[in-house]
Amino acid sequence: MINKELRIGVIGVGAIGTEHIKRINHKIKGARVVGIYDVLEEEKKQLADEMGIMFYGSGEDLISSDDVDAILITSIDETHADYVLKALAQEKYVFCEKPLAIDSQSCAKIVEAEVKCGRRLVQVGFMRRYDKGYMELKKLIESKSYGEVLMLHCAHRNPESGLHYTTPMSIIQTAVHEIDVLHWLLQDDYVSVESILPKKQTKMTHTNLHDPQILVLETKNGVVIQLEIFVNCQFGYDIKCEVVCENGELGLVDPHYTYVKHNFSNQTPISPDWQTRFKEAYDTEFQLWVNGVLNHKLEGPSSWDGYVASVITTAGTESTNKGEKIKVMLQEKPSIY
Ligand SMILES: NC(=O)C1=CN([C@@H]2O[C@H](COP(=O)(O)OP(=O)(O)OC[C@H]3O[C@@H](n4cnc5c(N)ncnc54)[C@H](O)[C@@H]3O)[C@@H](O)[C@H]2O)C=CC1
Ligand SMILES: O=C1[C@H](O)[C@H](O)[C@@H](O)[C@H](O)[C@H]1O
Asked: What positions does the domain Gfo/Idh/MocA-like oxidoreductase N-terminal occupy (predicted)?
């Protein structure tokens, strides 16, 4: 039984876990963080003490605690599936940051476990669907005022990614956002994915990272999407989405309100990072998730969306390895989604 205020336990208190804790405790109505767990026990127990909340001995203890109504998973990718399955075993609501799991088989297991619960309990952290720009694009597309969508030119650029970043991570960690939001935008399904490796950037890279990469995605309705992924572009956190229609082009703008004209130049800022670029989208995402849990009606990105994204990222990595276009096949979508 959920009280009036949703008591949230957080597993993994790193960069985004800390962001989301602040967001839930200072911005979101109807919820508060009551406990955390992280493998860095010494360091994060201190944080729990400072916040005056419980530090649990394990993720499992947090999930099964009667003092925790819902779980937020912001630990590393490899740990998501196991925690989501344990939350489902307790039939608790769980918000899992993307990706739902690091392979499509694990995502399929989560879908199967959630179907057994008979209702939606999982939401996945695909927050682009809550960005004002993407929501406006969706309305413009659905209006058909510019005819049918023919193709999209997209780019997902990070200023830098660090030496730990590898070629597959550019797809599984980074391109996964476009892979989710674009089929939602088009209300269409992917039928193939091809990875193309252009000339490699040499300054900020290493042997295990080919950067940039291009993914070419095709949909059931014949739309072709070119997606550039550049994780060391150095000039900013730059997200592009150009939608080419039969008689018009629709596109995203970087959400800034000022420019500076000075010394014979005219400068418009570019977001420095994901926290800044999608700040409002994260806030909307979490308020609607909390509302959904309190009303027992989740409507955000589901385990099925996590499964679909994982099938495509797996095929994208296969295409990089094989150097050929990969056709994708999805399981039948269960009726609860
Ligand atoms: N939706 C979005 O835009 C974003 C999503 N993410 C996702 O959020 C997750 C976390 O990313 P970051 O915060 O950047 O990583 P991070 O490395 O800063 O934090 C991860 C935390 O998880 C902890 N951890 C590792 N193994 C654990 C385990 N078995 N149990 C509990 N805690 C464990 C680590 O000690 C660390 O504190 C990743 O899956 C990432 O893909 C990250 C950034 C943005
Ligand atoms: O998870 C993330 C963040 O969501 C950013 O949006 C991406 O640009 C980043 O590459 C990825 O790690």
From this structure: 6-126
Name the stretches of the chain with pLDDT < 70: 1-3
Q: Is residue 1 included in any domain, yes or no?
A: no
72 forms beta bridges with: 10, 95
Residue-averaged pLDDT of the chain: 96
pLDDT recorded at residue 212: 97
Within 10 angstroms of residue 60's Cβ, the number of other Cβ atoms is 17
CA nearest to 313, candidates 167, 184, 186: 167
Domain span at residue 37 reads 6-128+280-302
Name the pairing type of β-strands 54-55 and 238-245: unpaired
What pLDDT score does 2 carry? 56
User: Which of 173, 233, 237, 252 best tests ligand 2's pocket when mutated (most atoms within 8 Å of CB)?
Assistant: 173
Same domain, 150 and 295: no
Q: Rounded to an integer, what distance in angstroms lies between the CA atom of residue 59 and that of residue 218?
A: 39
Instruction: Reduce the DSSP state of residue 67 to 3 states and report it.
Output: coil
The total of structural domains in the chain comes to 2
Least distant ligand from the CA of 58: 1
Let me know if residue 124 belongs to a domain. yes
Q: Which of 270, 307, 319, 84 is CA-nearest to residue 176?
A: 307
| Dist CA 60 CA 69 (whole Å) | 14
Cβ pair 240, 254 in contact under 8 A: no
Flag whether the ipTM exceeds 0.95.
Answer: yes
How many A from CA of 273 to the centre of ligand 2?
A: 9
| CATH assignment of the domain containing 213 | 3.30.360.10
Cβ(316) to ligand 1 under 6 A?
A: no
